[in-house]
Amino acid sequence: MLDSWMYVSRATTPMGSLDDVLIYLAARARNREKGITGYLHREQDYYVQYIEGEHENLAELRSLITKDTRHTDLRVLSQGAQSRRLFDGWDMAFSTGAGTGFAEYRTHQGYRADLTSAAEAEILEFMKASIAGGRAHCVALYLPEVAGRAI
User: What's the CA gap between 89 and 91, in Å, rounded?
Assistant: First the structure.
């Protein structure tokens, strides 16, 4: 059975740090192996993530994420069965709030721009628009200070 899970949490590490790179790289490798797809967005002091996959694999990943000390105050926005994947082909899309984040996207549309109180549908719309607009890429594109360094 295909499940999904979305949460927002407060980061305990600085935005643009090596921790963001490590989270992304570990997620891509693990997700590819476990058949999980999704999107991770980092904006200021917050992460928001949507992941989808088979129930057992997603439950295992949820357990790892909730124990990760690189974030705190995790709040579940949604979880449950899915009829189809929303991020098929993206083992882990990643974006940051640098330049074209959720706040800018929603403000430009004339809507509320607070990531921490946004509804699941608003965040998913932003994530899909970011992919369509070419703003969800490899983390190294957003963190030039670590691009090219061995991790």
Answer: 6
